Amino acid sequence: MASFRLEKRPTPSQAWTWATPVLAVLLTMVAGGLMFAALGKNPFLAIKTIFYDPVLGEFAFYYRGQLLVKAGPLILIAIGLAMGFKAGIWNIGAEGQYIMGAIFGAGVGLAFYPTEAWYIFPLMVIAGAVGGLLWAMIPAILKVRFQTNEILVSLLLVYVAEQFLAAMSLGLLRNPEATGFPGSRNLQQFPAASNPELWAGTGIHFGVVAALIAVIFAYILLSRHLMGFHIQLAGQSPKAARFGGVNPTALVVFCMGLSGALAGLAGMFEVTGPAGQISINFNAGYGFTAIIVAFLGRLHPIGILLAGLLMALTYIGGEAAQATMQLPAAAIQAFQGMLLFFLLGVDVLSNYRIRLNREAAA
Amino acid sequence: MDISSINWILLLASLMVAATPILLAAIGELVTERAGVLNLGVEGMMITGAICGFAVSVETGSATLGFVAAAIAGAAFSLIFGLLTQFLLSNQVATGLALTLFGLGFSALIGQGYIGIKGLSVPHIHIPVISDIPVLGPILFRHDLMVYVSILLVAATWAVLKYTRAGLILRAVGENHDAAHALGYKVVRIRLMAIAFGGACAGLGGAYLSIVRVPQWTEGMTAGAGWIALALVVFASWKPWRVLIGAYLFGGLTVLQLNLQAAGLKVPVEYLSMSPYLITILVLVIMSSGRSRAALNAPAELGRSFHASS
Question: Which of residues 199-258 of B touch A (CB under 8 A)?
Answer without folding.
Answer: 219, 223-224, 227-228, 230-231, 234
